């Protein structure tokens, strides 16, 4: 319980990055395809995972997810 505030500090920015990831993917994806609505929720799975994994893994998820979103934004414009 002592690490609960730290989890929220990591989960907050991760939720923002997941939101940006979903917005970028919506421009690339056909929302009429089967399962498209479910695929929109998958980036938020990383936010849920931060409540169960150690802090180092949460920071890793935040770093790699942010890197991926920034990389996609730069390369795909």
Could you name the key traits of this structure?
single chain; 77 residues; mainly alpha; globular
Describe this structure in words.
The chain is mainly alpha-helical and 77 residues long. It has 4 helices and no strands. It is globular. The chain starts with a helix and ends with a helix. The model has no long low-confidence stretch (mean pLDDT 84).
Brief synopsis:
The protein has 77 residues and is mainly α.
The average pLDDT is 84
Proportion of strand residues: under 5%
Number of discrete helical segments: 4
Write the element-wise H/E pattern from the N-terminal end onward.
Answer: HHHH
- Output the structural class: mainly alpha
The dominant shape is: globular
What is the helix fraction of residues, given as a range?
Answer: over 70%
Low-pLDDT parts are none
Secondary structure: elements and pairs:
Layout: H1 4-28, H2 36-41, H3 43-49, H4 55-76
